[in-house]
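In response to reviewer comment 3 from the previous cycle, which asked for concrete evidence that the modeling workflow produces usable outputs, we include below a single protein chain processed end to end. The sequence was submitted unchanged, and the resulting structure tokens are shown without manual editing.
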Amino acid sequence: MINIFYLSVMVMQSLIQNMEKYQNHKILKEKNMSNIKFSRRKMLGNSCLVLIGAMGSYAFNSSDVSVLTLGKSNDKKKLPFRISLNTSTISAYKLSVEKQIDLVADAGFDGIELWVRDVTAYLNEGGTCESLQKRLMSRNLVLENMIGFAPWFSEDTDARAKGIEQLHQEMIMTAKLGGEYIAAPIQGLKTLDKLKFDDYTQRYRNILQQADQTGVTPIIELWGAGALNQLADCAQIVISTGHPKASMLLDFYHLYRGNNSWNTLDCINAHRLPVFHINDYPASPAREQLKDSDRVFPGDGICPFNELIPKLYNAGFRGAFSVELFNKNYWATMDAPTILKTSYEKTCRVINDAMSNKS
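The workflow returned the following structure tokens.
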């Protein structure tokens, strides 16, 4: 029989470690202390149960302790990633940003990606960033990233200057919401000029410098049907900035649509990626004919998640897999809670299956 005091210490240590892992994001660390106190009461309660069991002459071995301390954890909490949602997935329902937050939290997600346009509409109607941040915190949602489309990369010098100012204001708004990242897609170009990569790098470096002022990092986004559709080009721009916060926003569908090879996905330092968009794509239409609206729930297409998710994990990824869909058929046949529940459950299943097969 394990010594009673030793067993109690083991259980408390395990529970404390799990609580610390759960609070691995800045926003969650800033939650009200009442939540933390509640967790500590639960830990003391569990320890007392162990003591009572031992006093009643129940014998435990180390494997029993593991079951006792972890048995109530759901699959989500065992994963090394957060499971989040880009609100593009429910954009057709025209929900207020407050309703979006509540429904995403109700579905079980860890985090959310809000769109700048939806937050702006909320502010124009009299809402405040502070109240929205409180709502996010009260629902235990990490604001993973903001989705905006400022033309910061424009070939037109004047338009680019206005785009940079627009992005700056959106970064300030993101900071007030408690966020740390904002998407920075390249727009206005049909193709990249290989002779202008130094200039492209400087454009990204210019907006990265604003991260030092705002506390929000713009992450350059790869679009499979856009000018920046190659992982190698994206990595070249990011690495060439020499900026410590430079990063990229990737997406399983966009990487496939851009005809990138999965064989070298793990060449990147995935630890630098705060968010990775997760979705799936069908076998038909042909790759080069796919549209954003063709994306399907994870696991319902042909994406080799069992290969790719372990690759990302081994390359250091510990961020959020955020579901991003624009499927018109889903919008026509499901209500918002159903599409959210299905997104969450299928994503959990795909990630769990992939991680159970990792080497």
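The chain has two domains: 4-69, 76-356. We consider this sufficient to address the reviewer's concern, and the full set will be provided in the supplementary archive.
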